[in-house]
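<derive_structure_tokens>
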Amino acid sequence: MEHLELFLKSIFIDNMVFSVFLGMCSYLAVSKKVSTAVGLGAAVIFVLLVTVPLNWLLDQYILQPGALSWLGEEYASYDLSFLSFIMFIATIATMVQLVEIIVEKFAPALYNSLGIFLPLIAVNCAILGGSLFMQSREIPTLSLATVYGLGSGIGWFLAILAIAAIREKIRYSNVPPALRGLGITFIITGLMAIGFMSFGGMLTGGDEEKKDKNETANIELEKGNENDVADNTIKVIE
């Protein structure tokens, strides 16, 4: 259940685009066609799926304070956390180069349509954000880090796929001249973000209901104790 909860949260509730608005540059630039959006979204899923667990291993065994204790007691005091950005970006850049080589080899048409935005995945803030959120939230296991990377990638993929499908439709719609282009795209993105916010109670509603029940039970218990005290006081007076 912990893996499923993290997976659903990373897709819907903590969506990279609609929750924290990361990766907006490629989200807006490559979402004019569904085919192009699918290609870039698949590349983002792969990069996040690989880099988040790899960076988790780097964080756990190299970067955290005392993480080098597995090399010996004399290394236990070392703190390499200041290298987090460099190490994370190096891992991401390596995976992006791998993706670029594969796409250029097996899908040259997609490679040409993506253009400069494929190598720019290396500096996509959504990719780096996945690793930094993994680090800041202190995800405890490698499997959870893998699930988080996969869910974050799927969430970004759904966001760019949805906006690409909508932009293909509104191309033939009667949009006011002042809102054509990025204007209507930003408005639709905001409405989609509000829609994704509705998933916020999907995994927390039960907890809140349980909390309300516990609070009600505590209030009733306190009232019962007050009534007992009042009854004892009356008896003493009599």
